[in-house]
Amino acid sequence: MRRAMFASLILGLLAGCVIGPKVDAFPPARRPEGVGIDGSTTRQGSFTGELLEVRDAGLLLLLVPPATATTKRLVLLPYRAIHEARFDRLGAHYELKDGQPPTAATRERLQRVSRFPQGLSDPLLRTLLDAYGQAEIEQVPE
Q: 115-121 — which CB contacts under 8 Å span 24+ positions?
């Protein structure tokens, strides 16, 4: 009886190691960037970028320039300003819609796949702003 229980435990542990997304199928696990994000805002239209940090008020993004802009920029996107947002390879369960903030579970998952899951320190934020030629984070209007 004990041997059967021990064997079941070992098999369960081994099976647990192979369930879930594989490293080669999930780009944030292979590179330093955060997960990609595509969506639209209630006022400014569509956007594409990278999730840098998850904050209480919204998402800190590095936006990829549209055809009319030349440089990337750091933007704080309030949850209330999001019409819809989709995250690369996370599935529909993690989409944000209609200005609703993410649930606690979704927020935790998004934080883990962001570039800075531990949050950005002030010196590091200043370094990023300087690198992109910004005096401060751009705020998207709600």
A: 115/32, 115/33, 115/34, 115/50, 115/51, 115/52, 115/53, 115/62, 116/34, 116/52, 116/53, 119/53, 120/52, 120/53, 120/60
Whether 64 and 49 have beta carbons less than 8 Å apart is answered as: yes
* Structural domain of 40: 31-136
Q: What's the pLDDT tens digit per position in 31-55?
A: 567 888 999 998 888 999 999 999 9
Q: What share of the chain is helix, strand, coil (3-state, %, to 5)?
A: 35, 25, 40
Q: What is the pTM of this model?
A: 0.76
78 found inside a domain: yes
Please name the residue that has the structure tokens 């435990």: 9
In CATH, what number is assigned to the domain containing residue 115? 2.30.30.180
100 inside domain: yes
